[in-house]
Amino acid sequence: IKVLYNKRGVSDYAFYDEAGIEERTGVHPTLYPQYAALRGDNSDNLPGVPGVGEKTAAKLINKYGGLDGIFEHVADQTPKLSQNLAENEDRARLNVEAMVLRRDTPLEIDPTTVRWDEVDVDEIQRLFEFLEFRSLYERLNTVLDGRLPDVSAGEGVLEAEMTRVDDAATAVALLGRLRTRREPVAIEALWVDGPSGELSGIALVSAPEDAECSFIDTDLLADATVVEALGALMGDGGVPLNAHHIKPLMRILRTRYGIDVTRLDVDTELAAYLIDPADSRYGLADLLLRYAQMELAGDDSAPSGQLSFGDEAGDPALDAARRALAVDRLAPVLSDIMKQRGLRDLYDELERPLVRVLAKMEELGIGVDVAELTRLRDYLVSECDRLQVAIIEEAGHEFNVNSTKQLREVLFEELELTPQKKTKTGYSTDAASLEKIRDQHPIVAHLLDYREVEKLRSTYGQGLLDVVGGDDRIHATFNQTVARTGRLSSEDPNLHNIPVRTEQGREFRRAFVPSAGLKLLVADYNQIELRVIAHLAEDPGLIGSFESGQDIHTATASSVFSVEPDVVTIEQRSKAKMISYGLAYGMEAYGLAQRLGIDRAEAVEILEAYFAAFPNVRSFMDRVVSEARDRGYTETEFGRRRLIPELNSPNRQVRGAAERQAMNAPIQGLAADIFKIALVRLDDAIAEAGLSARIVLQVHDEVILEVPAAELEEATDLTVATMRDAASLRVPLEVNVSVGDTWADAKS
Q: Cα–Cα distance between 659 and 549 in angstroms, integer?
């Protein structure tokens, strides 16, 4: 087979045969599907094995001959690669199945008989608008000689006119001129290796009406006059800025150049998230097409995840200029939509100022005791080794514990244990399935223990050591546009998932420490979700329990099980706690039965008793679902919306899941709003009070500060007051505060 691949545009081609493909990829074409399965293919939405790119994939394929050989030698790889391969074996094998073109599909039509017929233009317009095929609609209209209605409100392909700023004097003059503008200035950063890498330059829209942009290379920021002019443009007294995902730029400008960006107007990523938090696609090109009906001009390079056969690279600076112009065109559209939907106040008072707070947190990071973290890692390594020996002894022979295929053979063929569920690649060996057969053989308990310890070792023991910076601090990234409920999330690393359920997991908090001479102050909301439920449902029983200062779970157990509070058992209190928090996630009888290990009939009785004791809770949840079904979305008291169109799905399971989401969204959403308000106000309050205390970490409903010993009392009072006053609910907001030399000391 010989192919002409277009390298660039429509006239530049390269000839490829089998030898050419092997030279380009490093593998023979017959092995390409397995190579691509490891690397992934973004064009088909098939994620590969994390950490495996083109070179690693080719090396593994050539060394072991394919996926079977690779997964038989998982243990021979580096610890991180071994973990990634073991955890993603099913994904890689499914990729091979999914990405190979099927050639055996029965065709019930004769292609030679297919002819153009009359087209239903109204149906085409409806379908293409629903699928957001705007550019395809225009192309089809060309084929149909313009018979389709004109629906384009945009400018087609968006191309920028870019000027490189060559010297400091020109840069200063440009920045000074932009500072006199009344309208917001659109900016975009150019990064080397993404936003976590180095800043290469900044593109600014200098003449929006003429699509003119200017690019300032970071080399010019070595000049103090340019830095001063840029700070004057972006700081207090400057002009409003529009950007897409501005937080990394905010962070590096503060860290590297001392520029505090305070005049953000519209962050197009954040605005799009508020408009539709369920979308998850907030790339600038996607948003430009969706909301402004314009396509971002490109350089014809291959999409990420596909092979590129071109030799020429586009101009990265021009790409940044195009993106800046896209922001300029998109920001007013998103701003208008936010105003129309009552979201602008939420954006201005909560989400927008939070960007700067999170940028400062990421810049500061949190201190780590590297020696303690290393000790924990080494202990977990020894535990993994011990458990692997125990597993192999129970199996009666050597095998790769991390190979799903070999594990299936040992468990279900050799030991003849009872398989619980079957996946596309064989019987499942996931934790839930293994838990059900724990009593059938000692090997299962060892496997479950091994996986827990191995996850602690790789994700937290080694994983945290791998991301400790040169300043002995971990600088995680905090996301505002991931969770649909409005909650913040954390990545690189995910500090929100530091384990707390096991003693071994809790040990990791000992490795988090303040800077020398400081203390960690930890403040978290006491049962905020339950207080939000009491507030929203206006249930007198729940409100009374919180106002009286009773232990809410004991009070709930007393009402549900009809016993006096002083005779409530630990088991009853535990069940009441499970019900209360479960309801915050829309849990029903089946879910409660699963959590408590009881039959469904008993779970129904317990839930009925709960709703009898707190009837307004059921009324509230029924009302939320009904209103969301009518409107298509839920809304918090601060105006945060969550679109849930699945509430009208004809599929009962899909509709049931949507109803649980509708019950959960106002509760989680309001709790998230309150916490974000508290973070923004606390950061402002610390600055206004002139304290040296600083916010270094946020985890769920908990905020952690580094505080000098001399400021502890003032900082504690300030933190508690700020968090308590973040919102006015029908029940008091309570804040737990503790201080320690490590995160673990404070939490204990």
A: 32
Which is nearest to 355 in space by CA: 517, 243, 226, 200? Answer: 243
DSSP letter at 100? S
Identity of the amino acid at 549:
G
What average pLDDT does the segment 334-341 reach? 94
Backbone angles phi, psi at 734, to 5 degrees: -110, 145
The 8-class DSSP code of residue 220 comes to G
Q: What is the pLDDT of residue 310?
A: 52
How would you class 167 by CB atoms within 10 Å of its CB: exposed for 0-12, middle for 13-18, buried for 19 or more? Answer: exposed
What is the rounded CA–CA span in Å between residue 82 and residue 79? 5
**Stated pTM of the model:** 0.79
Q: Which residues contact 434 (CB under 8 A, 6 or more apart)?
A: 444, 447, 448
Distance (Å, whole) CA 698 – CA 622: 33
Ordered alpha helix ranges (H), 585-742: 589-596, 600-613, 615-631, 652-689, 712-724
Match 């920028």 to its residue by tokens. Answer: 160
Question: Rounded mean pLDDT of 236-248?
Answer: 94
List % helix, strand, coil for the chain (3-state, nearest 5). 55, 15, 30
Q: Are 100 and 65 in contact (CB under 8 A)?
A: no
Q: What is the mean pLDDT of residues 684-691?
A: 96
Q: Which of these, 400, 401, 520, 504, lies nearest to 461 by C-alpha position?
A: 504
- The partner residues of 473 in beta bridges, in order of sequence, read 367
Residue 215 CA, chain-centre distance (Å), reads 31
Strand locations in 328-453, DSSP E? 366-368, 422-423, 426-427
Q: Do β-strands 185-192 and 161-164 pair in parallel, antiparallel, or remain unpaired?
A: unpaired
* Alpha-carbon separation of residue 703 from 356, 394, 473, 479, 700 (angstroms): 16, 46, 17, 15, 8
669 pLDDT band (50/70/90 cuts)?
Answer: very high
